[in-house]
Amino acid sequence: MVESVPSNAAEDEPERPEDRSTPEDGSTPSSGDDGRTTSSREDGESTGRSGTEDGSSPAAGAHPEKSRADKQRSFWKELPILIVVALVLAFLIQQFLGRVYMIPSGSMEETLHGCPGCTPDRILVDKVTYHFTDPAPGDVVVFRGPQPWVEDDPPLESANPVAQFFQNVGSAFGLAPPDERDFVKRIIATGGQTVQCCDDRNRVVVDGRPLDEPYLYWEGGDREQEDFGPVRVPEGTVWVMGDNRNNSSDSRYQGGGGPRGAVPVDNIIGKARLIVLPPSRWGVVSDHNPQQEPVAAAPVAPAAPTWQQGLPLGVGAAASWPVVRAGRRAATAVGTGRRAVGSVEREH
Question: Which of 164, 85, 178 is closest to 125 using CA atoms?
Fold first, then answer.
């Protein structure tokens, strides 16, 4: 708070000879424009008062370069913070929201590419959906292979503990493939339903009703499916099959087939939502429910744009800069508030 300047008593009284003498405090008198004398000390006080009357501090502009350097950190000092924030955000996204998986085989052609000689698709898997809903027929899901599926497979873990450590770290941040046997298939039937093949038109039947499967791909041109069942799907599990029906090792064969081929719902990691790579394949993964009656005039979904987005590590890197800037602004605001409080205390 700025106090009002008191009136000068010398201006109210006639000039006396002793006023011309040197003040006791040692200040040097000077002659003003109107012939009256003022001390240099008074001049300094007057200057200090005038400097505070306009709300500015005399030292505010004394070192502008130093002040600017104190407020702005160099890029190289912020770079490690940006990297750490990006990795933390990527870790959280990978573990709780979504993850990118590569299609390892051609069992889901042509919905998902993974055939030998072609560029395998990368799909974004939604890990949140099944916390609120149950897996449904038609969903394309990624799941950890249950014991009957992987009991005859060799272990994937490296015997080298250093390599295993970096594998685990890279997998957690999406920089390396996960050290687990993961599969991608389409859900055909759920717990309590009975599935078998085939009817007189070569269609899979669930609870006595043939399925509508427009996504099927017949590699080699052979459109005949191998008979199986009937199999009652155990509760808490799903029956999965590949879209490339004659080139897919799925619930019909894994674990010897039958109920052992079903996949526990707890093993499902998430639902495949988008193809994120390569750019030419960008699009939504179909979740057509084969148990529903076909609709003659179903609306056509709009075409997806031919660009990519949604990679968790990219999202983490992009989000790290605003987070760091917000933290820096908050720190600057706190520092400004402290300086303002200190200035008010000194004035009082």
Answer: 178
- Quote helix, strand, coil % in the chain, to nearest 5: 35, 20, 45
Structure tokens belonging to residue 110: 């042509």
Contact 140, 108 (CB under 8 A): yes
Find the catalytic residue in 107, 248, 251, 320: 107
Q: Is the pTM of this model over 0.70?
A: no
Alpha carbon distances (Å) from 302 to 109, 202, 248, 305: 22, 32, 30, 9
Per-residue tens of pLDDT for the chain, all 348 residues: 444 444 443 444 444 444 444 444 444 444 444 444 444 444 444 444 444 444 444 444 446 666 666 656 677 778 888 888 887 877 777 777 888 888 888 999 989 988 777 888 999 999 999 999 999 999 999 999 999 998 877 665 556 676 666 666 666 655 555 556 889 999 999 999 999 999 999 999 999 999 999 999 998 878 889 899 899 999 999 999 999 998 999 999 999 999 999 999 999 999 999 999 899 999 999 999 999 877 554 443 333 333 333 445 555 555 555 655 666 665 565 556 556 545 545 555
CB atoms within 10 A of CB 62: 9
β-strands 204-206, 194-197: how paired? antiparallel
d(CA 14, CA 295): 108
Q: What are 134's two structure tokens?
A: 């149950």
Please confirm, yes or no, whether 185 is among the known catalytic residues: yes
Q: Is 50 a catalytic residue?
A: no
Give the active site residue among 105, 127, 185, 271. Answer: 185
